[in-house]
Amino acid sequence: MDALIVFRIGSEHIGVDINKVREVAEAQVPVAVPQSPDFVKGLVNIRGEVIPVISLRRRMHIEGDDIGNKLLIIEDAGNIAGLLVDELLGTEKLKKKKINRRADILSTRKNRRFFFGLYETGEKPILILDITKTLSKEET
Hints:
By secondary structure, the chain is mainly beta. 9% of the residues lie in helices and 46% in strands. The protein contains three helices and eleven strands; from the N terminus they run βββββαββββαββα. The chain has helices at 56-59, 103-106, 131-135, and strands at 3-9, 12-17, 21-26, 40-46, 49-55, 70-76, 79-85, 87-93, 99-100, 115-119, 126-129. It starts with a strand and ends in a 5-residue tail after the last helix.
């Protein structure tokens, strides 16, 4: 992992490995899928490919409504999804020594299982998203 795409959900700054992001797209109104988990907003068609839209806000139990209009189309181990984010903040080139993977730092966050570390910046720290756990079907 060399760089992160950084975005905001609520007041949290979150980063995802730039190599896992296929593209950034405008959010569309998804088609609802009956009996899907509540964090799956539905399906959208992006250039002929049907992609599930995941509300990270719902997935991580962050209060409030989804307010963003951007989808990060991500791919991990053959799984593809669109992550609905509140705001794109840019990219952050990583310095390995600034990644903190100590579990006790994240232990007060009820959604800590979705992250594998914290990137310490001069401003607000960036939570590093674990895409595999985020895309798992397991509900929290």
